[in-house]
Amino acid sequence: MNMDTLAALFHGFAVAATPYNLFWSLVGVTLGTAIGVLPGIGPALTVALLLPVTYGMEPTSAFIMFAGIYYGAMYGGSTTSILLNTPGESASIVTALDGHAMARKGRGAQALATAAIGSFVAGTIATIALTFVAPLMVKIALLFGPTEYFALMVLALTTVTAVLGDSLSRGLASLLFGLALGLVGIDLQTGQARFTLGISELLDGIDVVVVAVGLFAVGETLFTVARHCFEIEELYQLKGSKWLSREDWRRSWKPWLRGTALGFPIGALPAGGSEIPTFLSYLTEKRLSKNPEEFGHGAIEAVAGPEAANNASAAGVLAPLLALGLPTSATAAIMLAAFQQYGIQPGPLLFDNNPELVWGLIASLYIGNVMLLLLNLPLAGVWVKLLAIPRPWLYSGILLFATMGAYTLNNNIVDVALLWIIGLIGFGMRVLNVPVAPCIVGLILGPLAEQQFRRALTISQGDASVFFTHPISLALIVIALTLVLVPTLLRWRAARQASEAANQA
Amino acid sequence: MLKSANFRIGETILGLASLGLGLFIGVETWSTPPIAAQTVIGPGLFPALIATGLVLVGLQLLYEAFLHRLQVEEFPELDWKAVILVAAAFASQLVLLERLGWVVSGTFLFVVSAMAFGSRTHLRNLMIGLLLTALTYLVFDYGLDLDLPTGSYVEDLVDLAGGTV
Hints:
The complex is a heterodimer.
Chain A: H1 3-16, H2 19-36, H3 43-50, H4 59-84, H5 93-104, H6 108-141, H7 146-163, H8 168-183, E1 185-186, E2 193-194, H9 208-227, H10 246-268, H11 275-288, H12 301-324, H13 330-341, H14 348-353, H15 355-376, H16 380-387, H17 391-410, H18 413-431, H19 437-459, H20 466-469, H21 471-504
Antiparallel strand pairs in A: 1-2
Helix pairs in contact in A: 1-15, 2-3, 2-4, 2-15, 3-4, 3-9, 3-13, 4-5, 4-6, 4-12, 4-15, 4-16, 5-6, 5-12, 6-10, 6-12, 6-15, 7-19, 7-21, 8-19, 9-17, 9-18, 10-11, 10-12, 11-12, 13-19, 17-18
Chain B: H1 5-31, H2 45-66, H3 80-116, H4 122-143, H5 152-161
């Protein structure tokens, strides 16, 4: 245990526990839950849509509110997956499997309860872990030069791409599209305008909020309107006892802890995300269960474990974001954009320059978690009512707020036009099943990676071999290559074996 | 492989889009005169890398679409009329928003897109649209000090009536 860390954390609590900041934390968790619970809106979009609300605030309070929105949206998202079977993001897909099955059996309230309590347990443990891991990560980050940073970003970009979706080429197309969008604007080192097409509003680049809202909100709305007459939604009301039985507790507590143990470390890796830990948690619980045949038909372990893993990784993702300035999920990318809007660059220096902000934010995560447990257990019924909003109003409202968000960014219509174009592209990506997250992470990481790349080469006077002669950088690049090549090879071998088997038959 | 016919169209579109974007970036970068700046690496290298990547991925997607029976996936059935209606209502904002203002043009967007989602209670939709936009206008312009457009035509009207906004 590090005394400095504890002292800093106590100081953070002093910042976060002022009535003023407590108020913003409460606003954040409430808004986050309320928006996150709406079908089709995941945490990334929730944060992006609520960004304008914080414009007038001072940074510390704004980020305390963001932390609340972030955690709140995670809680809200699980309600939607369980009762409506429409996961707002890929990490809740696993929860939807058995959670919705439980809801069909009339055990929706228990599914919600185990998700909420599991999220609380996981969130709290993972926040404690974050408290101690983040300063360690800062120490490591201080050893990094531009070369290592570049390699780290390459690793983050490849994992986001290689992990999501089932086609590497489509993930790459999405990533490269994001990187291309990131090129737009003035080149920071030479002042040359790139790809602005003569539009002066584009000199500052394309805002990540416009892209996220365009892809998630507008694209999703267009896709939903295109599909709404072909799909029937089934909403399950809560009925019967709201509480977990002794049996439910007995079956839930180990999956909560195991989910946390999987979620935090994987989320905290600079290559994390929350898809892998939720899937791993599901598989682990299925393997350890005495009755694996229940899985897929409403096993409470299959809700408890993945939900815990999901929330633990959400805390984990904050470690590289705060300590390295490295976003590893779409939501983290938007949080990074929010930091940049305040002129704050997350990274090792943030802990020295803005200790109030960092530790206030971390302390507010503890507080937010308690608030969320209180908001979600007794008030579950209130959030469920939000699910019953008629779809025409819900999606028209989403479009309205998307437009508002884009316009108020810079008070010009160019952002709304961009939102429209990117919305249409997002619709196309949704139809063609192209993952969206690589695009958003690429957009925000691309320009940072380019800066580090050019800085590294300036220091080495143009010698590109530095990326392979620095040991840390080499290791990171080798890991990135392995992550791309191994699954490709495995897939190729499986395909060959399948065709051989077909030939023999 | 008959079922994959539709899907191949999708892969082809995606491949062509990647290829097109890659070529555009490539040509644009190629034709930009180099700046004589004191940097080892100019502003053109990264775009060139991205352009190359896009072209390669585009070719790979086209290869998968035409020669490779890699994945068979259902192309979802789509209600194109509804999509076009929503997209058009959204596009109208580009013209209307700064002229008619947030309240009028936002309400229009709300009503039309609710219609596309199959809602037939137009009057009620209108009321909800008005309520939402008016509320956000008040909160943003007076509470948060952000500017949602009042609308140049609306301002003219108010001026004519002798009032101030």
